[in-house]
Design goal:
Blueprint lengths: L10 E12 L2 E12 L3 E6 L5 H9 L6 E6 L2 E2 L5 H9 L1 E4 L11 H12 L4 H14 L15 H12 L6 E5 L7 H18 L2 E5 L3 H7 L2 E5 L4 E5 L1 H5 L4 H7 L16 H5 L17
Parallel strand pairs: 3-8, 3-9, 6-7, 7-8
Antiparallel strand pairs: 1-2, 1-4, 4-5, 9-10
Helix pairs in contact: 3-4, 3-5, 4-5
The protein binds adenosine-5'-triphosphate (ATP).
Length: about 290
């Protein structure tokens, strides 16, 4: 295992020396990573580390300030709107609260991208929609409205919609958040089955350590601004890197500070007057 950028002979997505910040605040610094084609890659790491930002860079919703984001060898950051539009048709993105259109039936939600992006006749659209709904176990729910289905079912409909155009890459942001254990197991199984059946390259951003390690072929752990570790789940689990160790063993103490940076305890709770004019202290300061 290594924290260097791996160069998979067949990577669908590569970030090369990417630096990105929101305004002055740098989130990713000289970050390099590769996502192998046809596999399930998990991106994990401390909250606020920039995982969703990486998905946005790959989807072209954000552009890197430095470095390259390559999808199929093409630099997403250098694409014009038309190229980006074409590239996005080959990507499915499922964000945690990726809402369905509430005024459309389940069927019409899944048909939407097909009607929007293709000239296929309605009979063919019908067959594709029913196939996609069948793949997520919801062919029978086609006529229901979003208000008539559960949250877990709504996510599966969103998944059917995301694969409607047969993407080559699918990105899930927190697919397990808020799901009960059965729905969670079903979601993980679905991600794996769809990936295998459709030959998809899958990227999953998740905080659910156990489920994600079970699911993924390749795991990337983000440290502050860069990759702390990457490899198979077994390799990452065995890492001696203190940050990775803290993360994969869910330890409350370690390099990832519990406290958001702010004033020290003595300053906030000390005798009256002690706080006057005192300076803010570093993260994790007791
Ligand atoms: N549009 C934005 N403008 C300014 N700052 C942002 C914006 N989006 C995200 N950030 C900040 O960038 C940092 C990284 O955010 P991001 O959502 O990529 O992290 P994350 O690793 O996905 O976090 P989490 O695991 O908590 O979802 C966070 O500190 C966040 O506050």
């Amino acid at each position: 295992m290594s924290s260097d950028a791996p160069s998979f002979a067949d990577a669908l997505v590569q970030l090369r020396n990417v630096t990105f910040g929101y305004g002055e605040r740098v989130i990713l610094r000289d970050l390099s990573l590769a996502v192998p084609r046809g596999k399930v890659t998990a991106i994990m790491g401390a909250s606020g580390g920039g995982k969703t930002t990486i998905l946005r860079l790959i989807g072209g919703q954000q552009r890197a300030q430095q470095g390259q984001v390559l999808v199929n060898g093409q630099d997403v950051g250098a694409m014009d709107m038309q190229q980006l539009y074409a590239a996005r048709r080959r990507m499915g993105m499922l964000f945690q609260f990726g809402a369905l259109f509430t005024d459309m039936s389940v069927f019409d939600n899944v048909a939407f991208p097909l009607r929007e992006h293709t000239d296929l006749p309605e009979e063919l659209i019908r067959d594709i929609v029913l196939m996609k709904l069948n793949a997520v176990g919801l062919r029978g729910a086609r006529d229901l409205m979003p208000s008539q289905i559960s949250g877990g079912m709504a996510r599966r409909v969103a998944l059917a919609r995301a694969i409607a155009l047969d993407p080559e890459l699918i990105m899930y942001d927190e697919p397990f958040a808020g799901l009960d254990p059965i729905s969670l197991g079903t979601a993980a199984q679905l991600i794996r089955q769809l990936g295998d059946a459709m030959g998809l390259t899958t990227i999953v951003v998740s905080h659910d350590l156990e489920e994600t390690f079970r699911l993924a072929d390749h795991v990337i752990i983000l440290g502050p601004g860069s990759v702390a570790a990457q490899g198979t789940p077994e390799e990452v689990r065995a890492s001696a890197d203190p940050l990775v160790h803290q993360f994969v063993h869910a330890l409350p103490a370690g390099p990832v500070p519990f406290h958001y940076p702010g004033p020290g305890v003595a300053q906030d709770f000390g005798p009256p007057g002690a706080s006057g004019g005192a300076q803010h202290q570093g993260a994790g300061r007791p």
